[in-house]
Amino acid sequence: MRYISTRGAAPVLDFGQAMMTGLARDGGLYVPQTVPVLSADDIAALAGLPYETVALRVMKPFVGGFFADDELQALLAKAYAGFGHAARAPLTQLAANHFLLELFHGPTLAFKDFAMQIIGQMMQAALARSGARITIVGATSGDTGSAAIEAFRGLPNVDVFILFPHGRVSEVQRRQMTTPTEANVHALAIEGSFDDAQARLKDMFNDFAFRDAVGLAGVNSINWARILAQVVYYFYAAVALGAPHRAVSFTVPTGNFGDIFAGYIARQMGLPVERLVIATNQNDILDRAMRTGQYRTDGVRPSLSPSMDIQVSSNFERALFDALGRDGRATAALMDDLKAGGFSLSQGVLQALRATFASGRCGEAETLATIRDTLAATGELLCPHSAVGVHVAAQHLSATPMITLATAHPAKFPDAVERACGIRPGLPPRLGDLFDRAERVTRVPNDLAALQRLIRERTGR
Ligand SMILES: *Cc1c(COP(=O)(O)O)cnc(C)c1O
Protein backbone atom coordinates (compact mmCIF):
# COMPACT_ATOMS: atom_id res chain seq x y z
CA MET A 1 0.00 0.00 0.00
CA ARG A 2 1.39 3.38 -1.08
CA TYR A 3 0.44 6.77 0.33
CA ILE A 4 0.30 10.00 -1.70
CA SER A 5 0.02 13.62 -0.63
CA THR A 6 -3.17 15.63 -1.22
CA ARG A 7 -0.99 18.35 -2.77
CA GLY A 8 0.70 16.00 -5.20
CA ALA A 9 4.29 17.18 -4.69
CA ALA A 10 5.69 15.06 -1.84
CA PRO A 11 7.38 11.64 -1.94
CA VAL A 12 5.14 8.56 -2.13
CA LEU A 13 5.51 6.63 1.15
CA ASP A 14 4.71 3.22 2.61
CA PHE A 15 2.56 2.80 5.73
CA GLY A 16 5.40 3.00 8.24
CA GLN A 17 6.83 6.12 6.66
CA ALA A 18 3.44 7.82 6.44
CA MET A 19 2.84 7.07 10.14
CA MET A 20 6.21 8.51 11.19
CA THR A 21 6.03 11.54 8.87
CA GLY A 22 2.61 12.97 9.66
CA LEU A 23 2.39 16.14 7.56
CA ALA A 24 3.73 15.72 4.00
CA ARG A 25 6.68 17.86 2.94
CA ASP A 26 4.54 19.79 0.43
CA GLY A 27 2.20 20.78 3.28
CA GLY A 28 -0.39 18.16 2.24
CA LEU A 29 -1.88 15.16 4.01
CA TYR A 30 -1.18 11.53 3.16
CA VAL A 31 -3.99 9.38 1.74
CA PRO A 32 -3.93 5.82 0.36
CA GLN A 33 -3.21 5.69 -3.38
CA THR A 34 -6.20 3.35 -3.72
CA VAL A 35 -8.69 2.38 -1.03
CA PRO A 36 -9.04 -1.41 -0.62
CA VAL A 37 -12.60 -2.76 -0.84
CA LEU A 38 -13.99 -5.48 1.41
CA SER A 39 -16.57 -7.78 -0.21
CA ALA A 40 -20.06 -8.17 1.27
CA ASP A 41 -18.97 -11.61 2.49
CA ASP A 42 -15.88 -10.15 4.19
CA ILE A 43 -18.06 -7.58 5.94
CA ALA A 44 -20.72 -10.11 6.94
CA ALA A 45 -17.99 -12.28 8.47
CA LEU A 46 -17.12 -9.46 10.95
CA ALA A 47 -20.44 -9.93 12.78
CA GLY A 48 -19.99 -10.92 16.39
CA LEU A 49 -16.19 -10.82 16.35
CA PRO A 50 -14.17 -9.18 19.16
CA TYR A 51 -13.21 -5.54 18.49
CA GLU A 52 -9.51 -6.41 18.10
CA THR A 53 -10.26 -9.02 15.40
CA VAL A 54 -12.39 -6.57 13.45
CA ALA A 55 -9.52 -4.09 13.76
CA LEU A 56 -7.03 -6.59 12.35
CA ARG A 57 -9.22 -7.34 9.31
CA VAL A 58 -10.04 -3.69 8.57
CA MET A 59 -6.51 -2.31 9.09
CA LYS A 60 -4.53 -5.12 7.48
CA PRO A 61 -4.94 -4.12 3.79
CA PHE A 62 -3.72 -0.57 4.60
CA VAL A 63 -0.67 -1.70 6.53
CA GLY A 64 0.59 -3.48 3.42
CA GLY A 65 2.92 -5.95 5.09
CA PHE A 66 4.64 -3.34 7.28
CA PHE A 67 3.47 -5.47 10.21
CA ALA A 68 2.91 -9.23 9.90
CA ASP A 69 -0.61 -10.33 10.89
CA ASP A 70 0.43 -11.89 14.19
CA GLU A 71 2.50 -8.82 15.07
CA LEU A 72 -0.40 -6.44 14.36
CA GLN A 73 -2.73 -8.70 16.32
CA ALA A 74 -0.41 -8.58 19.35
CA LEU A 75 -0.17 -4.77 19.11
CA LEU A 76 -3.97 -4.46 18.94
CA ALA A 77 -4.34 -6.71 21.98
CA LYS A 78 -2.01 -4.46 23.98
CA ALA A 79 -3.61 -1.26 22.69
CA TYR A 80 -7.14 -2.07 23.82
CA ALA A 81 -6.42 -4.11 26.97
CA GLY A 82 -6.67 -0.98 29.13
CA PHE A 83 -10.22 -0.13 28.04
CA GLY A 84 -12.91 -0.21 30.71
CA HIS A 85 -15.51 -2.06 28.63
CA ALA A 86 -15.28 -5.59 27.19
CA ALA A 87 -17.01 -4.46 23.97
CA ARG A 88 -14.52 -1.52 23.61
CA ALA A 89 -17.15 0.45 21.62
CA PRO A 90 -20.58 -0.55 22.94
CA LEU A 91 -23.73 0.50 21.13
CA THR A 92 -26.75 1.70 23.09
CA GLN A 93 -30.16 2.79 21.86
CA LEU A 94 -31.62 6.29 22.26
CA ALA A 95 -34.86 6.05 20.28
CA ALA A 96 -36.67 3.78 17.81
CA ASN A 97 -34.07 4.13 15.08
CA HIS A 98 -31.31 6.12 16.78
CA PHE A 99 -28.26 4.50 18.39
CA LEU A 100 -25.29 5.84 20.34
CA LEU A 101 -21.78 4.44 19.85
CA GLU A 102 -19.95 4.94 23.14
CA LEU A 103 -16.33 5.70 22.29
CA PHE A 104 -15.37 6.90 25.77
CA HIS A 105 -14.32 3.73 27.58
CA GLY A 106 -10.59 4.17 26.90
CA PRO A 107 -8.04 5.22 29.54
CA THR A 108 -8.59 8.98 29.06
CA LEU A 109 -12.36 8.77 28.46
CA ALA A 110 -12.42 10.20 24.90
CA PHE A 111 -12.51 8.55 21.47
CA LYS A 112 -8.96 9.71 20.80
CA ASP A 113 -7.76 6.71 22.84
CA PHE A 114 -8.86 4.37 20.03
CA ALA A 115 -6.29 5.83 17.65
CA MET A 116 -3.63 6.98 20.09
CA GLN A 117 -3.28 3.64 21.89
CA ILE A 118 -2.62 1.67 18.71
CA ILE A 119 -0.38 4.34 17.14
CA GLY A 120 1.75 4.23 20.32
CA GLN A 121 2.14 0.48 19.98
CA MET A 122 2.81 0.64 16.23
CA MET A 123 5.42 3.40 16.53
CA GLN A 124 7.22 1.59 19.35
CA ALA A 125 7.29 -1.66 17.32
CA ALA A 126 8.66 0.16 14.26
CA LEU A 127 11.34 1.92 16.35
CA ALA A 128 12.38 -1.25 18.16
CA ARG A 129 13.39 -2.76 14.78
CA SER A 130 16.04 -0.09 14.19
CA GLY A 131 16.79 0.92 17.77
CA ALA A 132 15.98 4.53 16.87
CA ARG A 133 14.44 6.96 19.40
CA ILE A 134 11.91 9.66 18.67
CA THR A 135 10.65 12.68 20.55
CA ILE A 136 6.91 13.20 20.32
CA VAL A 137 5.92 16.82 20.87
CA GLY A 138 2.27 17.78 20.86
CA ALA A 139 0.13 20.81 21.66
CA THR A 140 -3.26 20.25 23.20
CA SER A 141 -6.37 21.99 24.37
CA GLY A 142 -7.04 18.90 26.49
CA ASP A 143 -8.09 15.56 24.99
CA THR A 144 -5.30 14.89 22.51
CA GLY A 145 -2.52 15.53 25.03
CA SER A 146 -3.89 13.25 27.70
CA ALA A 147 -4.56 10.49 25.14
CA ALA A 148 -1.00 10.83 23.77
CA ILE A 149 0.61 10.71 27.22
CA GLU A 150 -1.46 7.68 28.16
CA ALA A 151 -0.47 5.93 24.91
CA PHE A 152 3.28 6.66 25.04
CA ARG A 153 4.00 6.48 28.78
CA GLY A 154 6.74 3.99 29.52
CA LEU A 155 7.48 3.09 25.88
CA PRO A 156 11.25 2.52 25.68
CA ASN A 157 12.05 4.29 22.39
CA VAL A 158 9.91 7.41 22.85
CA ASP A 159 9.97 10.63 24.86
CA VAL A 160 6.68 12.51 24.93
CA PHE A 161 6.34 16.26 25.60
CA ILE A 162 2.88 17.80 25.72
CA LEU A 163 2.33 21.55 25.75
CA PHE A 164 -0.93 22.73 27.22
CA PRO A 165 -2.07 26.28 28.01
CA HIS A 166 -1.49 26.96 31.70
CA GLY A 167 -4.76 27.34 33.60
CA ARG A 168 -6.94 26.70 30.54
CA VAL A 169 -7.61 22.96 30.58
CA SER A 170 -10.11 21.23 32.86
CA GLU A 171 -8.83 19.71 36.09
CA VAL A 172 -9.51 16.16 34.89
CA GLN A 173 -7.64 16.83 31.65
CA ARG A 174 -4.70 18.43 33.50
CA ARG A 175 -4.40 15.62 36.02
CA GLN A 176 -4.49 13.02 33.27
CA MET A 177 -1.39 14.71 31.83
CA THR A 178 0.48 15.48 35.04
CA THR A 179 0.02 12.34 37.15
CA PRO A 180 1.76 9.62 35.07
CA THR A 181 5.05 8.81 36.84
CA GLU A 182 7.09 7.42 33.91
CA ALA A 183 10.34 9.27 33.21
CA ASN A 184 9.60 9.58 29.46
CA VAL A 185 6.50 11.73 30.11
CA HIS A 186 6.89 15.53 30.20
CA ALA A 187 3.82 17.70 30.81
CA LEU A 188 4.60 21.34 29.99
CA ALA A 189 2.27 24.15 31.06
CA ILE A 190 2.99 27.02 28.68
CA GLU A 191 2.39 30.61 29.75
CA GLY A 192 0.04 31.39 26.90
CA SER A 193 -3.00 30.16 24.96
CA PHE A 194 -3.57 26.98 22.97
CA ASP A 195 -2.75 28.96 19.83
CA ASP A 196 0.61 29.94 21.37
CA ALA A 197 1.33 26.28 22.16
CA GLN A 198 0.44 25.27 18.61
CA ALA A 199 2.53 28.08 17.13
CA ARG A 200 5.63 27.05 19.16
CA LEU A 201 5.09 23.44 18.05
CA LYS A 202 5.01 24.56 14.42
CA ASP A 203 8.21 26.57 14.98
CA MET A 204 9.92 23.43 16.31
CA PHE A 205 8.90 21.40 13.24
CA ASN A 206 10.14 24.18 10.95
CA ASP A 207 13.56 24.25 12.65
CA PHE A 208 15.02 21.35 10.66
CA ALA A 209 18.30 21.19 12.63
CA PHE A 210 16.38 20.81 15.89
CA ARG A 211 13.87 18.45 14.26
CA ASP A 212 16.64 16.08 13.14
CA ALA A 213 18.67 16.39 16.35
CA VAL A 214 15.87 15.22 18.65
CA GLY A 215 14.05 12.96 16.14
CA LEU A 216 10.89 15.06 16.35
CA ALA A 217 7.63 13.28 15.48
CA GLY A 218 4.00 14.34 15.68
CA VAL A 219 0.77 12.54 16.45
CA ASN A 220 -1.82 15.20 15.68
CA SER A 221 -5.08 14.32 14.00
CA ILE A 222 -3.74 14.58 10.45
CA ASN A 223 -1.60 11.47 11.00
CA TRP A 224 -2.93 8.80 8.61
CA ALA A 225 -2.43 5.98 11.13
CA ARG A 226 -4.83 7.73 13.52
CA ILE A 227 -7.52 8.00 10.85
CA LEU A 228 -7.07 4.33 9.97
CA ALA A 229 -7.56 3.17 13.55
CA GLN A 230 -10.87 5.07 13.64
CA VAL A 231 -12.23 3.32 10.53
CA VAL A 232 -12.58 0.16 12.61
CA TYR A 233 -15.46 1.23 14.83
CA TYR A 234 -17.60 2.24 11.86
CA PHE A 235 -17.46 -1.37 10.67
CA TYR A 236 -17.92 -2.75 14.18
CA ALA A 237 -21.07 -0.69 14.81
CA ALA A 238 -22.62 -1.06 11.33
CA VAL A 239 -22.23 -4.84 11.37
CA ALA A 240 -23.85 -5.00 14.79
CA LEU A 241 -26.93 -3.32 13.23
CA GLY A 242 -27.12 -5.59 10.21
CA ALA A 243 -24.58 -4.40 7.62
CA PRO A 244 -23.85 -5.37 4.90
CA HIS A 245 -27.48 -6.49 4.48
CA ARG A 246 -28.80 -3.20 5.85
CA ALA A 247 -27.39 0.31 5.39
CA VAL A 248 -26.77 2.65 8.32
CA SER A 249 -26.03 6.37 8.72
CA PHE A 250 -23.68 8.07 11.17
CA THR A 251 -23.67 11.47 12.84
CA VAL A 252 -20.26 12.62 14.02
CA PRO A 253 -19.46 15.56 16.37
CA THR A 254 -16.79 17.20 14.27
CA GLY A 255 -13.82 19.48 14.88
CA ASN A 256 -10.81 18.69 12.74
CA PHE A 257 -12.79 16.32 10.47
CA GLY A 258 -10.58 13.34 11.40
CA ASP A 259 -13.22 11.15 12.98
CA ILE A 260 -15.81 11.66 10.25
CA PHE A 261 -13.21 11.19 7.53
CA ALA A 262 -12.60 7.72 8.95
CA GLY A 263 -16.30 7.05 8.28
CA TYR A 264 -15.82 8.23 4.71
CA ILE A 265 -12.99 5.71 4.28
CA ALA A 266 -15.21 2.95 5.71
CA ARG A 267 -17.84 3.86 3.10
CA GLN A 268 -15.24 3.75 0.32
CA MET A 269 -14.18 0.32 1.55
CA GLY A 270 -17.66 -0.94 0.79
CA LEU A 271 -19.49 -0.47 4.10
CA PRO A 272 -23.08 0.50 3.24
CA VAL A 273 -23.18 3.96 4.83
CA GLU A 274 -26.07 6.03 3.49
CA ARG A 275 -25.21 9.39 5.07
CA LEU A 276 -22.38 10.82 7.13
CA VAL A 277 -23.75 13.80 9.04
CA ILE A 278 -21.28 16.47 10.13
CA ALA A 279 -22.37 17.90 13.50
CA THR A 280 -20.75 21.21 14.48
CA ASN A 281 -21.17 23.45 17.50
CA GLN A 282 -21.40 27.23 17.12
CA ASN A 283 -18.02 27.10 15.37
CA ASP A 284 -19.77 25.99 12.24
CA ILE A 285 -17.43 26.56 9.28
CA LEU A 286 -18.19 23.06 7.93
CA ASP A 287 -21.97 23.39 8.21
CA ARG A 288 -21.83 26.77 6.50
CA ALA A 289 -19.62 25.35 3.74
CA MET A 290 -22.00 22.46 3.11
CA ARG A 291 -25.02 24.75 2.98
CA THR A 292 -23.59 27.71 1.05
CA GLY A 293 -20.45 26.44 -0.68
CA GLN A 294 -18.45 29.18 1.06
CA TYR A 295 -15.57 27.89 3.19
CA ARG A 296 -14.55 30.98 5.17
CA THR A 297 -12.81 31.33 8.52
CA ASP A 298 -14.63 33.35 11.12
CA GLY A 299 -12.63 33.28 14.39
CA VAL A 300 -13.24 30.80 17.21
CA ARG A 301 -15.86 31.34 19.89
CA PRO A 302 -15.24 29.20 23.01
CA SER A 303 -18.12 26.77 23.55
CA LEU A 304 -19.34 24.08 25.94
CA SER A 305 -17.76 21.51 23.58
CA PRO A 306 -14.15 22.80 23.53
CA SER A 307 -12.67 19.88 21.57
CA MET A 308 -14.71 21.05 18.58
CA ASP A 309 -13.74 24.73 18.84
CA ILE A 310 -11.73 25.03 15.66
CA GLN A 311 -11.22 27.71 13.08
CA VAL A 312 -10.29 25.38 10.20
CA SER A 313 -10.77 21.60 9.90
CA SER A 314 -7.40 20.23 8.76
CA ASN A 315 -8.66 16.84 7.57
CA PHE A 316 -11.33 18.40 5.34
CA GLU A 317 -8.49 18.72 2.83
CA ARG A 318 -8.61 14.95 2.35
CA ALA A 319 -12.30 14.99 1.37
CA LEU A 320 -11.73 18.01 -0.89
CA PHE A 321 -8.88 16.22 -2.66
CA ASP A 322 -11.28 13.42 -3.65
CA ALA A 323 -14.11 15.83 -4.54
CA LEU A 324 -11.61 17.63 -6.82
CA GLY A 325 -10.92 14.37 -8.66
CA ARG A 326 -7.67 13.84 -6.73
CA ASP A 327 -6.10 16.89 -8.35
CA GLY A 328 -3.20 17.85 -6.03
CA ARG A 329 -2.55 21.16 -7.70
CA ALA A 330 -6.20 22.24 -7.40
CA THR A 331 -6.20 21.19 -3.73
CA ALA A 332 -3.03 23.19 -3.05
CA ALA A 333 -4.57 26.24 -4.74
CA LEU A 334 -7.64 26.13 -2.48
CA MET A 335 -5.43 25.75 0.60
CA ASP A 336 -3.50 28.85 -0.50
CA ASP A 337 -6.78 30.77 -0.77
CA LEU A 338 -7.63 29.59 2.75
CA LYS A 339 -4.60 31.45 4.11
CA ALA A 340 -6.22 34.60 2.75
CA GLY A 341 -9.52 33.82 4.51
CA GLY A 342 -11.37 31.20 2.48
CA PHE A 343 -12.59 29.85 -0.83
CA SER A 344 -15.76 28.95 -2.75
CA LEU A 345 -16.61 25.38 -3.64
CA SER A 346 -17.67 24.82 -7.25
CA GLN A 347 -21.09 23.23 -7.91
CA GLY A 348 -19.35 19.99 -8.94
CA VAL A 349 -17.31 19.79 -5.74
CA LEU A 350 -20.29 20.66 -3.59
CA GLN A 351 -22.38 17.97 -5.31
CA ALA A 352 -19.64 15.39 -4.78
CA LEU A 353 -19.46 16.25 -1.06
CA ARG A 354 -23.24 16.28 -0.65
CA ALA A 355 -23.45 12.77 -2.14
CA THR A 356 -21.87 11.51 1.09
CA PHE A 357 -22.10 14.22 3.73
CA ALA A 358 -24.99 16.11 5.29
CA SER A 359 -24.51 18.66 8.08
CA GLY A 360 -26.07 20.48 10.97
CA ARG A 361 -25.21 22.89 13.78
CA CYS A 362 -25.99 22.89 17.49
CA GLY A 363 -25.78 26.11 19.52
CA GLU A 364 -25.00 26.44 23.22
CA ALA A 365 -28.58 26.45 24.54
CA GLU A 366 -29.40 23.47 22.34
CA THR A 367 -26.40 21.58 23.70
CA LEU A 368 -27.60 22.04 27.28
CA ALA A 369 -31.20 21.17 26.35
CA THR A 370 -30.07 17.99 24.58
CA ILE A 371 -28.14 16.80 27.64
CA ARG A 372 -31.20 17.44 29.81
CA ASP A 373 -33.76 15.94 27.41
CA THR A 374 -31.70 12.84 26.57
CA LEU A 375 -31.23 12.10 30.27
CA ALA A 376 -34.96 12.43 30.85
CA ALA A 377 -35.91 10.31 27.83
CA THR A 378 -33.29 7.55 28.07
CA GLY A 379 -31.25 7.80 31.30
CA GLU A 380 -28.11 8.34 29.19
CA LEU A 381 -25.82 11.14 30.38
CA LEU A 382 -24.13 12.81 27.39
CA CYS A 383 -20.96 14.91 27.30
CA PRO A 384 -21.47 18.26 25.51
CA HIS A 385 -19.72 17.02 22.32
CA SER A 386 -21.93 13.96 22.09
CA ALA A 387 -24.94 16.19 22.76
CA VAL A 388 -24.07 18.25 19.67
CA GLY A 389 -24.14 14.99 17.71
CA VAL A 390 -27.44 13.81 19.17
CA HIS A 391 -29.12 17.18 18.48
CA VAL A 392 -28.03 17.22 14.84
CA ALA A 393 -28.78 13.52 14.31
CA ALA A 394 -32.35 14.07 15.46
CA GLN A 395 -32.86 16.29 12.39
CA HIS A 396 -31.60 13.57 10.04
CA LEU A 397 -33.52 10.50 11.24
CA SER A 398 -35.07 8.29 8.53
CA ALA A 399 -35.88 4.62 7.93
CA THR A 400 -32.13 3.95 7.96
CA PRO A 401 -30.70 3.34 11.44
CA MET A 402 -28.75 6.38 12.67
CA ILE A 403 -25.65 5.88 14.82
CA THR A 404 -24.38 8.95 16.68
CA LEU A 405 -20.80 8.84 17.93
CA ALA A 406 -20.44 9.66 21.65
CA THR A 407 -16.93 11.11 21.69
CA ALA A 408 -16.22 11.68 25.39
CA HIS A 409 -17.39 10.54 28.82
CA PRO A 410 -19.63 13.06 30.63
CA ALA A 411 -17.26 13.05 33.63
CA LYS A 412 -14.64 14.75 31.49
CA PHE A 413 -16.85 17.85 31.29
CA PRO A 414 -18.63 17.85 34.66
CA ASP A 415 -19.32 21.60 34.81
CA ALA A 416 -21.27 21.69 31.54
CA VAL A 417 -23.17 18.52 32.38
CA GLU A 418 -24.10 19.77 35.84
CA ARG A 419 -25.22 23.10 34.39
CA ALA A 420 -27.45 21.24 31.92
CA CYS A 421 -29.16 18.74 34.19
CA GLY A 422 -28.07 19.27 37.80
CA ILE A 423 -26.12 16.01 37.96
CA ARG A 424 -22.36 16.09 38.43
CA PRO A 425 -21.08 12.92 36.73
CA GLY A 426 -18.44 10.95 38.65
CA LEU A 427 -15.32 9.38 37.19
CA PRO A 428 -15.45 5.62 36.50
CA PRO A 429 -13.96 3.66 39.45
CA ARG A 430 -10.73 2.79 37.59
CA LEU A 431 -9.95 6.55 37.50
CA GLY A 432 -11.38 7.28 40.92
CA ASP A 433 -8.05 8.15 42.58
CA LEU A 434 -7.05 10.68 39.88
CA PHE A 435 -7.54 13.54 42.32
CA ASP A 436 -5.28 11.95 44.94
CA ARG A 437 -2.29 11.28 42.68
CA ALA A 438 0.75 13.60 42.82
CA GLU A 439 1.15 16.01 39.90
CA ARG A 440 4.39 16.60 37.99
CA VAL A 441 4.45 19.52 35.57
CA THR A 442 6.95 22.10 34.31
CA ARG A 443 5.87 25.73 33.78
CA VAL A 444 7.47 27.00 30.57
CA PRO A 445 7.57 30.45 28.98
CA ASN A 446 6.02 31.04 25.56
CA ASP A 447 9.50 31.09 24.03
CA LEU A 448 10.89 28.80 21.34
CA ALA A 449 14.55 28.82 22.42
CA ALA A 450 13.68 28.02 26.04
CA LEU A 451 11.45 25.14 24.97
CA GLN A 452 14.09 23.71 22.66
CA ARG A 453 16.70 23.94 25.41
CA LEU A 454 14.43 22.06 27.82
CA ILE A 455 13.65 19.29 25.30
CA ARG A 456 17.34 18.83 24.42
CA GLU A 457 18.28 18.71 28.11
CA ARG A 458 15.58 16.19 29.00
CA THR A 459 16.34 13.91 26.03
CA GLY A 460 20.12 14.36 26.19
CA ARG A 461 20.22 15.02 22.41
C1 LIG B 1 -11.27 15.61 19.21
C2 LIG B 1 -12.68 15.58 19.65
C3 LIG B 1 -13.74 15.82 18.75
C4 LIG B 1 -13.52 16.23 17.31
O1 LIG B 1 -12.97 15.19 16.53
P1 LIG B 1 -12.32 15.51 15.11
O2 LIG B 1 -11.69 14.24 14.67
O3 LIG B 1 -11.31 16.59 15.35
O4 LIG B 1 -13.41 15.95 14.20
C5 LIG B 1 -15.04 15.69 19.23
N1 LIG B 1 -15.29 15.37 20.51
C6 LIG B 1 -14.30 15.14 21.40
C7 LIG B 1 -14.65 14.80 22.81
C8 LIG B 1 -12.96 15.22 21.01
O5 LIG B 1 -11.98 14.99 21.91
Could you explain the architecture of this structure?
The protein has a domain of 213 residues: 3-Layer(aba) Sandwich (Rossmann fold). The chain contains 19 helices and 15 strands. A 6-stranded mixed beta sheet has the order 3-4-14-9-10-13, with helices on both faces. Helix 3 packs across helix 4, helix 3 packs across helix 10 and helix 4 crosses helix 5. The longest helix has 19 residues. The radius of gyration is 21 Å and the shape is globular. The two termini are 34 Å apart. The relative contact order is 0.14. The model has no long low-confidence stretch (mean pLDDT 95). The structure holds pyridoxal-5'-phosphate. The site of pyridoxal-5'-phosphate has 16 residues, from helix 11.
Name of the level-1 CATH class of the domain at 91-106 and 225-421: Alpha Beta
The count of DSSP E runs of length 2 or more, i.e. the number of strands, is 15
SS-based structural class? Answer: alpha/beta
Radius of gyration: 21 Å
The outline comes out as globular
The total count of helices amounts to 19
With strands numbered from the N-terminus, the spatial order across the biggest sheet is: 3-4-14-9-10-13
Roughly how much helix do the residues carry, as a percent range? 40-55%
Ranges where pLDDT stays below 50 over 5 or more residues in a row are none
Q: Estimate the mean pLDDT confidence.
A: 95
